[in-house]
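Query structure, 130 tokens:
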């Protein structure tokens, strides 16, 4: 099955069209070796700001090893990641709420990294850098 025929690719194409119709500029990431773990799309809106978005097949998804490692780290730096499973109003509304990637974490993958531990490990002292 070619990359464009994969179910996630069809969902992604629908999301791009749906969001573009609502005033978003959506850029697709390439997912090559240098971008492992980076979400599928980066979207911009004049009113709502930016969103990193990953398309997943509802009920039949997984996270790559790179996503499992990278997304908690991004979160510790204040970068949100949203997962969408369809191009419809219900999924679109998720973009107006907090990042939701943690909602898709499966218990079988182990414990989610603790965000406070990640934040505390960023700096050698108690103060963030200037």
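Result returned for the query:
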């Amino acid at each position: 099955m070619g990359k464009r025929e994969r179910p996630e690719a069809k969902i992604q194409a629908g999301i791009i069209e749906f969001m573009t119709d609502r005033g978003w500029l959506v850029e697709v990431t390439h997912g090559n070796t240098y971008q492992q773990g980076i979400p599928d799309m980066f979207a911009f809106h004049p009113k709502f700001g930016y969103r990193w978005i990953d398309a997943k097949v509802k009920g039949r998804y997984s996270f790559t090893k790179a996503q499992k490692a990278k997304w908690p780290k991004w979160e510790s730096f204040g970068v949100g990641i949203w997962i969408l499973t369809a191009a419809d109003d219900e999924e679109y509304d998720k973009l107006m709420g907090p990042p939701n990637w943690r909602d898709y974490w499966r218990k079988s993958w182990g414990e989610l990294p603790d965000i406070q531990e990640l934040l505390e490990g960023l700096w050698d002292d108690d103060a963030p850098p200037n």
